[in-house]
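anyone seen this seq b4? input:
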Amino acid sequence: MGINATLIGQFITFAILVWFTMKYVWPPITQAMHDREKKIAAGLEAAERSKRELEMAERKAMSIIRDAKQQATHIIDEASRHSVLLVEEAKQQAKEEGARMIELAQHEISREVTQAKEVLKTQLATLVVAGAEKVIQRHLDASAHMALLDELVAEI
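predicted toks r here
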C-alpha cells in the first residue's frame, strides 16, 4: 500500500481534528470533569459530615433519653416516698384522732357513770329516808320490821 494523497489528507485532517479538539473541545470537557469531581468530593465530604453529625445527634438523643429516664425514675421515687410519708402521716393522724375520740368517750362514760352513781345515791338516800320514816312511824315489833325491810328491798 502506498502513501498517497488521500492518506496524507486524512492524516492532516485527523491532526487538525485532534488539534481543534485539544484546543477547543478538550478544555471544557476536562474543566467539566474537574468541576464534577469537586462537586462529587464536596458531596461525599458533606455526606461524611452529615453521617458524623447524625451519629452525634443520635448519641446526644440517647443521652437525653437516658437522662430523662433517670429523671423520671427519680421523680417516681420521690413521689413514692412522698406518698408513703403522706400515708404514714394520715395513719398517725388517724391514730391520734382515734385515741382522742377514745379518751373523750372514756371521759363521757366516766362522767355518765359518776352522774348515774349520784342519781342512784340520791334515790337510795330518798328510799332510806322513806324507809326510816316508815320505821319511825310504826314502832312495831320485829316481825313488822322484817316485813317493812322486805318491802324496802323489793322497792330497791
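The two ends are 169 Å apart (CA to CA). The mean pLDDT is 87. kinda curious what u guys think
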